[in-house]
Amino acid sequence: MHVAVLAGGQGTRLAEETEIRPKPMVEIGGRPILWHILSHYAGFGLHDFVVALGYKGDQIKRFFMDCVELMGSMTVDLGSGRIDRAEARAMDWRVHLVDTGAETNTGGRVRRLRDWLGQGTFLLTYGDGVSDVDVDALVAFHHRQRRVVTLTAVRPPARYGGICFDGNDVVGFSEKPQTGEGWINGGFMVCEPAVFDYLDGDETSLEYHVLERLAADGQLAAYRHLGFWQCMDTLRDKQLLEKLWQSGQAPWAVAPTGLATRLRVA
């Protein structure tokens, strides 16, 4: 099963970082958030990725080329130019990096991936959000529902902590709970090939054209995820994810097979 990742947007709300790199290349713990997303899927045995490129896509290509060239130990003979690798590469990912246009909308990017995704069910997500969603359970739910697309519905974290009162006295402060702001599309979608019937051209928005039409046709299911989910829209979001990673408590790094932990590079 292929995993498609939308990684072509400009990320204007994170301009502090995205002026010089595409948002999927913004680093958490010294690795691009795109790497974290792929690692999570790899933890469920999924290793075939199709990445839709756009804004500064060459930097994403360069990252994966460097992964191949620089991974593991090596000996460099400067006289002959020969490079001997001392150990096998650890990751068995296959990553297709597809140019989908600098100005193409999200639905248009998915449409341009059609020839890369084969004829079967595929997974689709955004290149700027991480979660501890159980991908196996998500796919099983999708097949039970028999809809064209299943999205993962999440409740975003409240942006601010709350005050705890006793009468007029403040007795404490609550953490920022992941409740209370309604359900939203958190990405981590499962799609049938019939979704391409809803994709008209480069200007098509996945969110405003495709998903809304699917919902009107009764072909959109929602998998409610009550666990961790966090997008990286702002510098504050990035700092939160970095803090979680550095604390060793990054929920998205844990997968049932344990492969995500093995693939983590110190």
General description of the model:
There is one protein chain. It contains 8 helices and 16 strands. It is an alpha/beta fold and 266 residues long. The protein has one domain: Alpha-Beta Complex (Spore Coat Polysaccharide Biosynthesis Protein SpsA, Chain A). Helix 4 crosses helix 6. The protein is globular, with a radius of gyration of 20 Å. The C terminus is likely disordered.
Topology (elements, then pairings):
Elements: E1 2-7, H1 15-18, E2 27-28, E3 31-32, H2 33-42, E4 48-53, H3 57-70, E5 74-77, E6 82-85, E7 94-99, H4 106-112, E8 122-126, E9 129-131, H5 135-145, E10 149-154, E11 163-166, E12 169-173, E13 184-185, E14 189-191, H6 206-216, E15 220-224, E16 229-231, H7 235-246, H8 259-263
Parallel strand pairs: 1-4, 1-8, 4-7, 10-15
Antiparallel strand pairs: 2-3, 5-6, 8-14, 9-16, 10-13, 10-14, 11-12
The profile of the biggest β sheet is: 8 strands, mixed
The amount of beta strand, in percent, is: 15-25%
Shape: globular
Q: Low-confidence parts lasting 5 or more residues at pLDDT below 50? A: 255-266
Task: Give the CATH topology.
Answer: Spore Coat Polysaccharide Biosynthesis Protein SpsA, Chain A
Question: What number of domains?
Answer: 1
Rg, rounded, reads: 20 Å
Distance between the termini: 29 Å
- For the residues shown, what is the average pLDDT? 85
CATH class wording:
Alpha Beta
